[in-house]
Amino acid sequence: MKQIETEIIIEAPIEVVWKTFIAFDAYKEWNHVIDIKGTPELGEKLTVKIILNDKTSTFKPKITKLEEERIIEWTGNLAHRRIFSGNHYFHFHPEGESLTRLTHGERFSGIFSRPIIRKIEKDTIAAFQKFNQAFKEQSECLVI
Questions:
Q1: How far apart, in whole angstroms, are the C-alpha atoms of residue 128 and residue 124?
Q2: What is the pLDDT along the chain (144 residues), one digit of tens a residue?
Q3: CATH number among 3.40.140.10, 3.30.530.20, 3.40.50.410, 3.40.50.970, domain 2-141
Q4: What's 107-125 look like in SS3?
Q5: Is the pTM of this model over 0.85?
Q6: Environment class of 59 (CB within 10 Å of its CB; exposed 0-12, middle 13-18, buried 19+)
């Protein structure tokens, strides 16, 4: 299994960070990398658009893990999970009262995961980091 993982420290309490994250409808106002439509509830299907190198890929993953203010994960497949599957995750860790560490990544599996990841790894890392920075800025501007 191949994994891509990024991290960022956000100068905002976890409650603010979580509320910013689950406000999917507001994403278009502050980021241009990931667009999410749907409801942040366990088992829900989302529509996720990710922009890599000016190319938009749309996925319809299912939320597979949700722990309020801590974890949200979804899994999507290309054709079938044995062909190519991605488990995208956002883990939120409080660092004291006013800081939150975001761990943002994806675990890939399936028979085509290695060649696909070789092709998109660099751009995927850059996109995750760009999203993380925009998310950090948006969360921090909401701290009162």
A1: 6
A2: 688 999 999 999 999 999 999 999 999 999 999 999 999 999 999 999 988 778 888 889 999 999 999 999 998 877 667 777 788 999 999 998 899 999 999 998 887 677 677 877 888 899 999 999 999 999 999 886
A3: 3.30.530.20
A4: EEECCCHHHHHHHHHHHHH
A5: yes
A6: middle
